[in-house]
Specification:
This protein is of the alpha/beta class and about 450 residues long. It is built from 14 helices and 22 strands. Strand 4, helix 4 and strand 5 form a beta-alpha-beta unit.
């Protein structure tokens, strides 16, 4: 399968790496010649230096022979035009990244008018994940999700006091053949190992057969756990802050946005109803005190600087705000999140790349995918006969640290796997993977011959 990616920025390169790991034939197009040279030395792919708006360039690479074109340059209009031209020239499917709020209410019209198959909006995706977390509180519906004969449940460890301060390896019998596949700890999703110790405030994600999970659900879930969301403060009035404020205001939440750019404040005031827009520096403790940060149900920091977001998250945490959410784009800061009292941390790059990959790959083999806390994803795939992982004990597979084979559907049988379990042809395999580890996961599920895996 052939994919053309236009734009060699962080998003374009992330998608490229993941697709190459799955055996796709990838062509990367960008105007930056020196960058193309670096990329060609790192990856086994065709690089083309030039402007993809040039029809002759697209004809030269025979875009009509491609299955997908993904336009992810830093310009919305350019992405729209390139996608539309590629579709007109015969590319089977085209994807465009569009970020401007001016287009958000016109995306369906743009898709139809410009003949674009899929539009991804990174900032809107982030805002939707934050909204879902704050309003629904549980990332799974009522903390419970089921697929086939396998179910997934999430709950805080203090609902089962007997497992607190115990290692994952020692609580298997206590959970009746169920498996702890993930832990949310201070805003960070962890794929646990056998020696991982459960803390009282951990949010656990447990997978198992339907009946045991249903019984566990009755023990750990109360009818009403959280109070209603009433007051939210947002630091940063960029696109994410704009989208989130609008959604929360429509849900009758009292919202305050703090934005340092005066011109941007004017825009926000003109385009947001029932939202208080404050011109100021969100890192100013006096401003936060004056605006009653202590009274907030949630504090969301989505400025354009990771360092600022982490600092603000720390301040809000020290003020005992119940929910603290931060946008953090640098992977190198991941370990800091756990120490700063953040309830949820989101990486726009990882979420956007995952959305695009799932559109490309989901048509054939992905049965379902469900994101949890914007950091990890449950995926169910069908194991085909050419996958390298077939008939090998899971313990012998080079599974990335940030991924776990959570369950297997085999005919009418539902299996919670162990190290000796082998994946067989036709199995429906449920995997949980950190978004940051998806490129490595793609390589794990690569086929022996050329072909699509996940």
């Amino acid at each position: 399968m052939k994919v053309a990616i236009v734009g060699a920025g962080k998003l374009g390169l992330t998608i490229t790496e993941a697709l190459l790991g799955s055996g796709y034939e990838v062509t990367l197009i960008d105007k930056n010649q020196s960058l193309m040279q670096i990329v060609s030395n790192q990856f086994d792919l065709l690089t083309v230096t030039g402007n993809a708006k040039n029809i002759n360039l697209l004809k030269e690479i025979k875009i009509n022979s491609y299955d997908y074109l993904v336009a992810v340059t830093d310009n919305d209009e350019k992405n729209i035009v390139i996608s539309s031209i590629a579709k007109k020239l015969g590319c089977a499917n085209v994807i465009a990244r569009i970020r401007s709020p001016e287009y958000v209410n016109q995306l369906d019209f743009i898709k139809e008018a410009m003949n674009i198959d899929y539009i991804v909006n990174p900032d809107l995706s982030i805002a939707n994940e934050i909204y879902k977390y704050l309003v629904e509180k549980y990332t799974l519906t009522d903390g419970y999700f089921t697929t086939g004969k396998i179910s997934i449940i999430e709950f805080t460890a203090d609902k089962l006091p007997g497992i607190i301060d115990k290692k994952i390896s020692s609580i298997g019998k206590m959970l009746d053949n169920m498996l702890v596949v993930a832990i949310s700890r201070n805003g960070k999703i962890i794929i646990p190992k056998g020696d991982t110790v459960v803390h009282s405030e951990d949010m656990l994600y447990v997978i198992g057969n339907d009946e045991p999970i249903k019984k566990l659900n009755e023990k750990v879930h109360e009818e009403k756990i959280y109070k209603d969301l009433e007051k939210v403060m947002i630091a940063g009035g960029g696109k994410i802050g704009f989208y989130l404020a609008k959604k929360l205001a429509d849900f009758n939440v009292s919202v305050k946005i703090i934005e340092i750019d005066k011109e941007r404040c004017q825009y926000l005031s003109e385009h947001l109803d029932k939202v208080l827009v404050l011109h100021g520096d969100a890192t100013d403790p006096m401003l936060l005190e004056d605006e009653n940060i202590d009274d907030m149900d949630a504090f969301v920091t989505v400025t354009g600087f990771d360092e600022e977001n982490l600092l603000l998250a720390l301040i809000a945490s020290q003020k005992n705000v119940e929910d603290v959410v931060a946008k953090v784009s640098r992977k190198s800061y991941a370990d800091l999140i756990e120490k700063l009292g953040v309830n949820m941390a989101l990486n726009p790059l990882e979420i956007t790349a995952t959305n695009i990959l799932r559109f490309i790959q989901g048509s054939e083999r992905i049965i379902f995918s469900k994101m949890i806390q914007g950091q990890a994803e449950f995926i169910e795939i069908v194991a085909n006969k050419n996958m390298r992982i077939l008939n090998i004990p899971l313990a012998e597979l080079n599974i990335p640290d940030g991924a776990i084979i959570a369950a297997i559907h085999r005919g009418d049988e539902a299996i919670i796997p162990r190290g000796s379990t082998k994946i067989k042809k036709g199995d429906k395999v449920i995997i949980l993977c950190l978004l940051s580890q998806i490129p490595k996961l793609e390589k794990l599920f690569q086929t022996k011959k050329w072909g699509l895996s996940i």
